Amino acid sequence: MGKKLLVIGQGGREHALVWKLAQSPEVEKIYAAPGNPGIAQLAECVNIEVHELDKLRKFAADQAIDLTVVGPEAPLMDGIVDRFKKAGLKIFGPCAAAAQLEGSKVFAKQLLAKYKIPTAAFEVCEDIEKAYKAARTYTDQGLPVVVKADGLAAGKGVVVASGWEEARQAIDDMMRDRTFGEAGARIVVEECLQGEELSVFALCDGKHYIILMSAQDHKRVFDNDEGPNTGGMGAYVNPPLFTPELRTRIETEIIRPIVDAMAAEGNPYQGVLYAGLMITTEGPKVLEFNARFGDPETQVLMPMIGGDLLPILECAAEGCLQDSKLEILDGGCVGVVLASGGYPGSYAKGKVITGLDKVDKGTVIFHAGTSLKQGELLTNGGRVLAVVCRGADTREAVENVYHQVAKINFEGMHYRRDIGRRAL
Ligand code: GLY
Fold it and tell me: Distance between CA 286 and CA 193 in Å, rounded?
C-alpha cells in the first residue's frame, strides 16, 4: 500500500510541495487542507483551515496519514507539530519552541549572540525610551538603523529607517500604538548591514541537515525593486553570488552552528531552516530566520530537486537525515508571479484567467489565488499564479518563462519583467 500525505496550506508554496510529492512512487494519495484549485488537480482538498489544529490532527489520525507537511508559519508557531507528535502522528516542521527562530526576533538574536553566530549588532528594547536611545546611536552618526517587532507582523514588522524621523515613527507604531499588537511589545533595534542579500534553505532533523539551495525572491511590486513590498513577485535559484566557497562558509559559520545551538538549548530544530543572510565584506551574517519554506522560493526550489523528496522529509521528521542524499538538478529555474491589478493594494477578484492551456510542456503553473466557478478558472487573490520554467542556466530560464507568461491573461494582470535578471 502506498503512503498517504497531508499538506497544510493553500498558496503557491503548498501547490509546489504537492506537485513535487505527487511524483513520489511511494505516494498513494495526497490530501491538502484547505488547498486551492491547482492543488486539487493532484490532491484531494479538504475544507479545514490552517488554524484549525484539532480538526487537522483528527483528520490525519482518521485517515491514517503517513506524513503531514506544514506550509505556513502560523500553525507552526501555534504548536501543530507538538500536537501531532503527541498523538503519534508523523509531521514535517519545527515544534513551537523551535519555531521561535522565526516567531521571536528577540529569541533568534539572543541565540545568535550566545553562540557567536555572525549577525548585526543589536539591542533588545522593552521600553520606548531605550528604543529611541538605541536608534539614535545610529541615526546621530548619519547611519540607517533597523527596527524589528519581536513577533510576527504579517511581513511588515521590519523597518529599515534611513534617519531619526523614520526610526522614531517605526518605534512609535510598534511600541506605542501597537500596530502589530503584542508583537510590538518588545522590539529589536539593530545595525543596518550593508552587502547583498541571499536566502539559503536547509532541511534539518534536529541534529543533521541538508543544504538545499539558495533562492532569491523579489519583494517589491515593480521592476528595479521599486514600489511597495509584496509577498514576493518572483524568484530564481542559485544566484551567482552563491559560490561553492560562500556555501561552505554559510554552512560552517551559520547553518551547522545554529542547528547545534538549537540542539544544545534543548530545542532541536526539525523542518526547513530558511536563513535570510546579508553577504557583507566580513562574510555572511544572519538577517533573520524563517521556520518554513519561502513563497515564492519553493516554486523554484521544487523543480530543481531531482529525486524523491518524500523519504527526505520523512527522515527530517524522524531524525535520520544523515543517511539521505538529495539530487539537485543542474541549470537555472525562474518563477514569475502574475498578480491582480492593484496588488499589493486593493484589487478585484473573479477575473477570468485564459491561456493556461497554451503554455509549453515543461512549464509549471502554480496556483496561489484562484477559484473555480462553473468550470471557469477565476482570480481569487492578490498573487494569482506563478509561472515557472527551468533552463540550461538562469538566462535561458528567464527567456523561457517570459515566453510562457505572454500566453496567459486576465483583466488587470501585472507582473515584474525583471525576475532573475539580477543574476545575469
Ligand atoms: N518570500 C519570502 C517569504 O516567504 O518569507
Answer: 10
